[in-house]
Amino acid sequence: MIFENHTISSRTTIRSAMETLDSCQIKLCIILDADGHAVRTVSDGDIRRALLEGADLQTPMSYFGAKRPVMLPEDASRQAILETMHAHAIQVVVLCDAKEHPVGLVDRTSLEGMILLSPPHIGMAEMDYIHEAFADNWVAPAGPNLEAFEHRLAEVSGRKSALALSSGTAALHLALRVLDTVPGDRVYVSDLTFVASLQPILYEHAVPVLIDAEPVSWNMSPLALERQLVLDAQAGNLPKAIVVVHLYGQSADMAAILQLANRYGVPVIEDAAESLGATYQNRPSGSHGLLSAFSFNGNKIITTSGGGALVSDRNDLIDRARILATQGRDQADHYQHSQIAYNYRMSNVLAGIGRGQLDLLPDRVAARQGVFRRYRDGLADIPGIGFQSDPENSIGSRWLTVIDLNPDLIDLHPYQFMRSLRAQGIETRPAWKPMHMQPLCQGMRFVPHTGSDAVAPGLFLRSLCLPSGSAMSTAAQDRIIDAVRLIAQEG
Ligand SMILES: Cc1ncc(COP(=O)(O)O)c(C=O)c1O
Questions:
Q1: Residue 223's CB: how many other CB atoms inside 10 A?
Q2: What is the SS3 assignment for 208?
Q3: Which residue among 197, 220, 295, 433 has the greatest number of ligand 1 atoms within 8 angstroms of its CB, and so is best to mutate?
Q4: Does ligand 1 have an atom closer than 6 angstroms to the CB of 167?
Q5: Element at 105 (helix H, strand E)
Q6: Residue nearest to atom 8 of ligand 1 (CA)
Q7: Which of 200, 236, 442, 477 could lock 173 by a disulfide, CB 3.0 to 4.6 Å apart?
Q8: pLDDT, tens only, 429-487
């Protein structure tokens, strides 16, 4: 319960009420009368509207008139407070003593906690595998959990081999290394993505070429890809590889992309960090390119607290990656090394978490897809809210549900949603900022979807990622839907 410094009088000016609001934890002031009774509450939004109506900084609080706030006795139960918040669609309740003098404020976040974007969803099954590792003293970057995890991951991703690593970024890096990427090589990569898709290209001093998104799945545009391939083929300067991201778990248009890649003989690396469990044309995401990378970061569909994997049908490539992931030791009785290599292996303990998590993958994916459907249905009647679409014959993992806010119909920037939702205890994030707009990528070649029109910047400026965790309750999700609806309508 919070109260200090939240009270003002009817004579307080807008200027000093704004100062009070600035210093308060809960952004709400209570106007008290001479007897210490609540006249009304005033929020930032009330003040903004008053200023728009013509009030100025010297206008006193009496301007707002009287409107008794929703109050509960100071000993009200958590349940009673939450029910009152729900019944009145409010985020803060004033608590009062027996004489109805306000004595405290409670907000929803302090009662329910923050709804996070994509928190880890861990159960107890993982503990059995971890326990085995401890009991057998396999606390090392090798062991039965690691082998079992890799075996199962290869099955789940429809591949012959899998290599468990310390991160998805490491997997992408090794994919480039086993393709013999050298300084100056060009590597095409999806423009609308997290920076980890691109960083490993820079580790090798290769040159990224940023391929725009298309507007359906928001993934690599086959149109842009084709234009660039034609140009580079004419110049005799084809890329070493194409890194295709499956954004937020939705597959890229792999049929078109693979057809082009095959036509020009360029290998495809799938960045499937976000799409484990998705299917494209009835095959698992990550089973289409030459090599694919997954991430088991804490915010992903399944997690090993931090980790990743490289998968392929080419056992020789995975064997090479395994050597590169363990300091590149040559086959010799002594320690002999002839190439630059890394310490990228996943530990047997973390692979135990991975085994437990992988057992639950279908549930986790189904839960995220269910979250997406509830958002889609719950927000369907609000004009101007759209979603990423699946390409034909494809079912995305819906790692994150992202809303696309049409500026012609909703006169609010996604950040206004983000701030307002944060104040209500709901964590959201902007969509990934396109690579060609990053300071890191200044001067890099960017290939727009059509000759003149870029798609990724618009998606970035209009979109917002909503909480999508597989353990999120339907009550929490209803709260988010109600909050988004209210902001869209009031805006
Ligand atoms: C699209 C994409 N690629 C690569 C990565 C890198 O994975 P990691 O964090 O495991 O290195 C991530 C996630 O973090 C991602 O979202």
A1: 18
A2: strand
A3: 295
A4: yes
A5: strand 102-107
A6: 168
A7: 200
A8: 999 999 999 999 999 999 999 988 899 999 999 999 999 999 999 989 999 999 999 99
Question: Could you tell me the residue ranges of all domains in the chain?
Answer: 7-112, 125-359, 361-490
The rounded Cα 414 to chain-centroid distance in angstroms is 15
Alpha helices in 315-464 (DSSP H): 315-325, 348-359, 361-378, 414-423, 456-462
How far is residue 432's CA from residue 461's CA, in Å, rounded to a whole number?
10
From the CB of 404, is ligand 1 less than 6 Å away? no
Rg (CA), the chain: 27
pLDDT for 321 equals 98
Q: How does residue 491 score in pLDDT terms, banded at 50, 70 and 90?
A: low
The rounded Å distance from CA 236 to ligand 1 centre is 32
- Ligand 1 mutation target, pool 169, 190, 202, most atoms within 8 A of CB: 169
At 56, list the tokens. 């100025």
Residue in 218, 297, 388 to alter for ligand 1 test, most ligand atoms within 8 A of Cβ: 297
Residue 467 CA to ligand 1 center (angstroms) comes to 18
Instruction: Please report the beta strands in 392-448, taking only residues with DSSP state E, as ranges in sequence order.
Output: 394-395, 401-405, 429-430, 445-447
Q: Is the CB of 169 under 6 A from ligand 1?
A: yes
Q: Which listed CATH number (3.40.50.1980, 3.90.1150.10, 3.40.50.880, 1.10.357.20) goes with 361-490?
A: 3.90.1150.10
257-303 pLDDT tens trace: 999 999 999 999 999 999 999 999 999 999 999 999 999 999 999 99
Determine the length of the chain: 491
- From the CB of 217, is ligand 1 less than 6 Å away? no
- Tokens (6 digits) for 256: 């078109």
Spatial distance between the Cα atoms of 399 and 467, rounded to a whole number of angstroms = 10
In one letter, which amino acid is 66?
Answer: A
- Dig out the tokens for 30 from the structure: 């209570």
Could you report the per-residue pLDDT of 15-59, keeping only the tens digit for each?
999 998 888 878 889 999 999 999 999 988 889 889 989 999 999
> Which residues, 6+ apart, have CB-to-CB distance to 277 below 8 Å?
156, 249, 284, 285, 301, 361, 362, 364, 365, 397
Compute the distance between CA of residue 458 and CA of residue 384 in angstroms, rounded to an integer. Answer: 14
CATH class, domain 125-359, is alpha beta
More confident residue, 24 or 204: 204
